[in-house]
Amino acid sequence: MPSEQDQFRKVMRQWASGVCVVTTNYFDVYHGMTVSSFSSVSIEPQLVTISLMKNSRTHDFVLDAKIFGITVLSETQKEISKIFAGLTPETENRFDGLETWTLVTGSPFLKEGLAFLDCRLIDVDDFGTNSLFIGEVVAAKVGNGGKPLLYFDQQYHLLQE
Fold first, then answer.
1. β-bridge partners, 48
2. Tens digit of each residue's pLDDT (9 = 90 or more) over 113-146
3. In the chain, helix, strand, coil percent, each to 5?
4. Is residue 154 within 8 Å of 15, Cβ to Cβ?
5. How many Å apart are CA 120 and CA 136, to the nearest integer?
6. What is the tens place of the pLDDT at every residue in 17-38?
7. CATH topology of domain 19-158
8. In sequence order, what E strands does 4-154 have?
9. Percent of the chain at pLDDT above 70?
10. What does the domain layout of the chain look like in residue ranges?
């Protein structure tokens, strides 16, 4: 009989989501990781949440820097998602060879994304293995169009028309 954690994981894999890369700039060093746990909380004020595992380097850097950026990935950015999902060792720079740019806080954004949110951390709460970060959006930008990269049941998918 599967454990309750295994069953929970199987259930959560049935939730299709978009794919984002959360980034931060801590003392002029960029850090980032792929996430699918991102959500809008409020329009006024403009607030979003991200959930990061406590044992990730990006968690600690966002906590210390108190800023983060969110790049919503396009269907052409599957390889970028894999890089930031940890398929490269933490000791390597995940940003090598990638074009980035910034808005207000200095958090880097990945070129060719669908949308971008620049956030200042306003609150963080710990829950189990993760922390829930609440960010106030200080700048937002829509990219040049395209379709989103989707994630479902441990696989990448493309939006069909």
1. 40, 135
2. 999 999 999 999 999 999 999 999 999 999 998 9
3. 20, 45, 35
4. no
5. 5
6. 899 999 999 999 999 999 988 9
7. Pnp Oxidase; Chain A (2.30.110)
8. 17-18, 20-26, 29-35, 38-42, 47-53, 67-72, 100-101, 109-110, 115-127, 130-142, 149-152
9. 95
10. 19-158
